[in-house]
Design brief:
Layout (H helix, E strand, L loop, with lengths): L1 E3 L5 E3 L11 E4 L3 E5 L10 E4 L6 E5 L6 E3 L5 E5 L20 H10 L10 E5 L2 E5 L11 E6 L7 E6 L3 E3 L5 E11 L5 E11 L5 E3 L6 E2 L4 E4 L1 E3 L6 E7 L5 E3 L4 E4 L5 E10 L5 E11 L3 E4 L18 E4 L17
Parallel strand pairs: 4-15, 17-24
Antiparallel strand pairs: 1-2, 3-5, 6-14, 7-13, 8-12, 9-10, 11-12, 14-15, 16-19, 18-22, 20-23, 21-22, 23-24, 25-26
Length: 333
């Protein structure tokens, strides 16, 4: 800029002026379908760029019960010293030098903490870099990226992001359109919408209603199945105990060879792919093994004289009805 006085004398100085991009928002997730009672995979429905950071976020109307929306730092950006581009979530990008320690200190000052055990050191073309998975101390995991700032050669941008929508919805909710409004540091706003629905919790049913009885010493097998949820299902005994010698496989097959007679009561729980559960109470009876008793050791009859009917052998245990067969060492005349 040149200044000229009344006598025509001039003096000049320079300054640099940069104009950043206007605040804008992007619909990152158009719609999401959740299930009541099942923890949502946290997501960011709307992202922001441009304007002046930090951003604040607002949502309308309120999310279904059990879900939360983080209204602050949906996207934080902070520039520190460094060279070129490195995306810490990329597996194939070249690793370039930069002052990571300065960047990490800046993030700590902003309230982020380095997640213990989340640093992975690796080398590429002789440069040392760190892959970080910081935490905000509330159990939320964050993505940490180093990106090159357009128009600012040699100055990377540290972008710290988290996912504003999280939680476990407690009840079903019809598909609803939500508006996310982003406000930057200058008070400029920009909005985008997304839709969200919550399906009713799955009602898992366990079958059959009762189990067939078994016999001690005899192989036993019974299939237990589930319906009403999302396959695959896993099965377990959650109370009571099975008869000795039997076990329940995670796939639902109750099998084995019971070793003793008696009656056992237990509960089988089926869990579907989303964590929804259903239960069934069972009582399983195991009968004694089949045994026979010699009721008449011997009998003498007279030819031509009607015999008094008798039962030489009786049976017990096993599973009724019984059938009988006889073999003879000699055939009477």
């Amino acid at each position: 800029m040149t200044v000229t006085d009344a006598n025509g004398t001039t003096s000049s100085k320079t300054f640099t002026l940069s104009v950043g991009a206007a605040l804008s928002t992007t619909q990152a997730v158009a719609s999401s379908s959740l299930t009541a009672g099942v923890a949502a995979t946290a997501f960011t429905p709307v992202t922001a760029s441009g304007g002046s950071t930090p951003y604040s976020y607002a949502i309308s109307p309120a999310l279904p019960a059990g879900l939360s929306f983080n209204t602050s730092t949906g996207s934080q950006r902070h520039a520190e010293r460094g060279e070129r581009q490195r995306d810490l979530h990329g597996d194939g990008d070249r690793c370039q030098r930069y002052d990571l320690q300065q960047d990490l200190h800046a993030e700590r000052r902003r309230g982020a903490e380095h997640h213990a055990g989340g640093a992975e050191q690796f080398a590429d073309r002789g440069y040392r870099c760190d892959r970080l998975h910081p935490s905000d101390g509330l159990g939320r995991q964050h993505a940490l990226q180093l990106r090159h700032l357009a128009g600012a050669a040699g100055r990377p941008e540290l972008q710290h992001q988290h996912w504003p929508v999280s939680g476990t919805p407690s009840a079903a909710s019809a598909s609803t359109t939500y508006t996310v409004t982003v406000t930057d540091a200058n008070g400029t706003t920009s909005s985008k919408t997304f839709t969200l629905s919550v399906a009713a919790a799955a009602s898992v049913s366990v079958s059959p209603s009762s189990l067939s009885s078994g016999v001690a010493g005899a192989a036993y097998s019974q299939s237990i199945t589930a319906s009403g949820g999302t396959a695959p299902y896993s099965y377990s005994v959650t109370s009571g105990s099975l008869p000795a010698g039997l076990s329940l496989a995670s796939g639902g097959t109750l099998s084995g060879t019971p070793s003793a007679s008696g009656s056992s009561s237990f509960t089988v729980t089926a869990t579907d792919a989303n964590g929804a559960t259903g239960t069934r109470n069972y009582t399983l009876s195991i009968g004694a093994a089949l045994s026979t008793t010699q009721a008449v050791a011997s009998s003498s009859l007279t030819a031509g004289v009607a015999a008094t009917a008798f039962t030489p052998v009786t049976a017990s245990g096993g599973s009724t009805p019984y059938s009988y067969g006889i073999s003879r060492r000699c055939r009477p005349a």
